[in-house]
Amino acid sequence: MAPLKDCVAVVTGATRGAGRGIAVELGAAGATVYVTGRSTRAQPASAYGQILALSKMEAVPGSIEDAADDVTRAGGRGIAVRCDHTRDDEVAALFDRVAQAHDGRLDLLVNNAWGGHEVFDGVFQAPFWERPMDPWDAMFNRGVRNHLLASRLAAPLMLQRRQGLIVTTTFWDRHRYLMGNLFYDLAKAAMTRLAYGMAQELRPHGVASVAVSPGWMRTEFVLAGHQTDEAHWQQRPALARTESPRYVGRAVAALASDPNVMARTGEVLRVGDLAREYGFTDVDGRQPPAFELDAKAG
């Protein structure tokens, strides 16, 4: 079955992590997926020095070409497009290319490009008055702004056909505060509000907008930080609560396949909850529950 065989999708920041997992699962459902990011086989992105050093990695993992090949192997059609989502001209060129190739059609945009990893210093919890201001630019100017920019260029294509879906990846646990990480908490709250606000303006035009919140994912950087890989992560008890990036991918594919997705527009949806609703599992057959912060969180 290929429920998305006629779907044209753009997944931003799809080189690795959640973006790659989403792109591959859309491919498994038959979609044509434009895989975007800055890392190519010839030239990996160069802005990840801090996290590479902390993870003891020599080069940033993944490329848009590799991710696009994964999409095609899964059953869809992967198209790699190098795009720096902080550059207005490159983002405009991306959506012009999609429109020209598909007679103005775009069914799905997944906003996932995120600059926060560029300034990760290994400190998970610290009061805001002890943190530098670097995360602001990384998470807002190279995170939240990326999502708004892509959305405002994708929306007109969807409005023409009076249908479409914009998915914004975020983190959300019922308004609990992520203690000790104010910048991250603010940025994710902004993304969640962005999805809600866009839903209000798009609703009259038949276009849906939702925020989707995965749990703690076993991304390439997380696995490297724990000195393991996807084949051996279960040997690390600290990773027991994790889920693969394909889990959020299956959530997005389920939403994109749902003919009644407009009923969800404006909502924040946790992956674990969607798994139970739509009946999908993670790649290992488990169905991890929605990730929750410590009950003592604000």
Automatic annotation (TrEMBL):
<dbReference type="InterPro" id="IPR002347">
    <property type="entry name" value="SDR_fam"/>
</dbReference>
<dbReference type="InterPro" id="IPR036291">
    <property type="entry name" value="NAD(P)-bd_dom_sf"/>
</dbReference>
<protein>
    <submittedName>
        <fullName>SDR family oxidoreductase</fullName>
    </submittedName>
</protein>
<dbReference type="Pfam" id="PF13561">
    <property type="entry name" value="adh_short_C2"/>
</dbReference>
